[in-house]
Design a protein that fits this description.
Elements: E1 6-13, E2 16-23, H1 25-50, E3 56-60, E4 64-68, H2 75-83, E5 86-93, H3 100-107, E6 115-119, E7 125-135, E8 139-146, E9 153-159, H4 161-173, E10 179-185, E11 188-193, E12 205-208, H5 214-226, H6 243-254
Helix pairs in contact: 1-5
């Protein structure tokens, strides 16, 4: 009764009874339509961030979107920004299990329950709790910046009211512990940075260091501001139309 979207199928395999649940066709269609609409909205947001004048974004069929970007010079850059599915997660590092033996075993595949094993950008092993403290959904603004202490590239993030309250509470309860900031793209997670929480952080402003370059800080900021795609998208066809074709059409029209 509680799972109206699921179709159940009972079967026996030897002595065991098996209950197989799958999404019914109506639910699948609904989820697909919602994901497509959400992706179109996200593409709108990203194109606005790119500063393209009068873009056209249209749904075509059940699972395709046509995007027209007039005046874009760097098509490779535009494609990369449109196709990425980046989202952010903030989680705590599992300090209790971060001894050398546990980390070595985790690297071999024996990861403690409730944790995930990562290597940070400098190749250091980390055990990060699966429990997500905050996601990119709480971000209201993000922009590139420079770290005043070491001159490195950073992303300055502003959280909404609820996100700021959660972040303040978590940082207050975990002073002197480490917090991992993960960037997740197309199902793959990467720990960008895992700083120590020196003090409670209020006000909803968070600085993410560990960016490889100013360009990466700019790209990550754009993706966080514009939101994540609900489902990954692949570019199946692209065409670049030059101005000479327009000129030809005008001549023909006048003629």
């Amino acid at each position: 009764k509680e799972f109206a979207d699921l179709a159940f199928k009972e079967s026996d395999t030897g002595t065991e009874k098996v209950l197989k649940a799958s999404l019914n066709p109506q639910a699948q269609t609904r989820i697909q339509e919602f994901a497509l609409k959400q992706n179109i909205q996200t593409l709108h947001n990203r194109i606005n961030e790119l500063g393209v004048a009068e873009p056209i974004i249209q749904q075509q069929g059940a699972d395709r979107v046509v995007v027209q970007l007039p005046g874009v010079q760097d098509t490779a850059k535009a494609k990369e920004i449109l196709g990425r599915t980046a989202t952010l997660e903030i989680r705590l590092v599992d300090e209790d299990k971060s001894d050398l033996v546990t980390l070595e075993n985790a690297a071999k595949g024996q990861v403690p329950f409730g944790d995930e094993f990562f290597l940070d950008r400098d190749g250091r092993p980390l055990l990060v709790k699966k429990n997500v403290v905050l996601t990119g959904d709480y971000i209201t603004d993000a922009g590139p910046g420079v770290d005043q202490q070491n001159g490195g590239s950073v992303v300055n993030v502003t959280l909404d009211g609820r996100g700021a309250r959660i972040f303040k509470q978590v940082t207050r309860e975990n002073v002197k512990k480490r917090m991992a900031i993960l960037l997740i793209e197309k199902g793959k997670a990467e720990v960008i940075t895992a700083p120590v929480i020196n003090e409670e952080i209020g006000g909803g402003r968070v600085q993410i260091s560990g960016m490889a370059s100013p360009q990466e800080a700019t790209d990550v900021s754009l993706l966080l501001r514009a939101g994540a795609l609900a489902a990954p998208m692949e570019i199946i066809e692209e065409r670049t139309v030059g101005p000479s074709m327009g000129e030809e059409n005008i001549k023909r029209g006048v003629h």
